[in-house]
Each structure stands twice: as C-alpha cells, then as structure tokens.
Write a structure and sequence with these properties.
5 helices, about 35% helix
Length: about 100
C-alpha cells in the first residue's frame, strides 16, 4: 500500500470534531456552512507515518506515491478555511497535540 504524497488534507481528531458538533447542536443561531478541520495541512504519507509512530509501529515500511502514479482522478489539495469556526472560538488540536499517549 502506498500513501499519496500529493494528497493534502487537514486531519481533525474525532474528539475535537465531536466537541464542535455538540456545541453546534445547542446553537440554532449558527447557520450555513462551517468548516471544521485540523490546523495542519499534511500529505497522506506524513499522516500515516505520524499515526504509525504514535501506535508504536515501524514507519520505514510505509511507502509514498502520487495520485498520478496510481491512475486515480481525485482532488490533491483540500484545505478548509477555518475562519468562521475560529471567530466562534473553535480551534482543533494539531496532530502533535492530538497524538499524545
């Protein structure tokens, strides 16, 4: 299995997302789209390596590839604008903060 080095996302910890959703459930005045994402834009290989390290697994076995090399057609960079969420007082933890024992 290869992890794309050109597929960029902003991973969010499930507990951070749950906290925002719980707050929103009690706020009918907040309407429209609200992006909630982690503060770091990272590629899939970096995400896989950080998760493997956190779980105590060897990272040298993880391989990188590109979307083009796979033959797939999919968006490479999806980075969400957290401006509105931040203005409402929300911020999600970085991967370093979220992946602590």
């Amino acid at each position: 299995m290869s992890f794309f080095t050109d597929e960029i996302r902003c991973p969010v910890h499930a507990l951070d997302l749950a906290r925002v959703l719980s707050w929103l459930a009690e706020r009918p005045d907040v309407t429209g789209p609200l992006n909630v994402a982690g503060p770091e834009a990272v590629d899939r290989l970096t995400l896989a390596r950080r998760a493997a390290t956190w779980m105590g697994h060897e990272t040298s076995l993880l391989r990188g590839s590109t979307i083009a090399e796979s033959g797939m057609l999919r968006p490479g960079r999806i980075v969400l604008d957290m401006t509105l969420a931040a203005s409402l007082g929300f911020g999600c933890r970085s991967m370093a903060e979220a992946l602590v024992s």
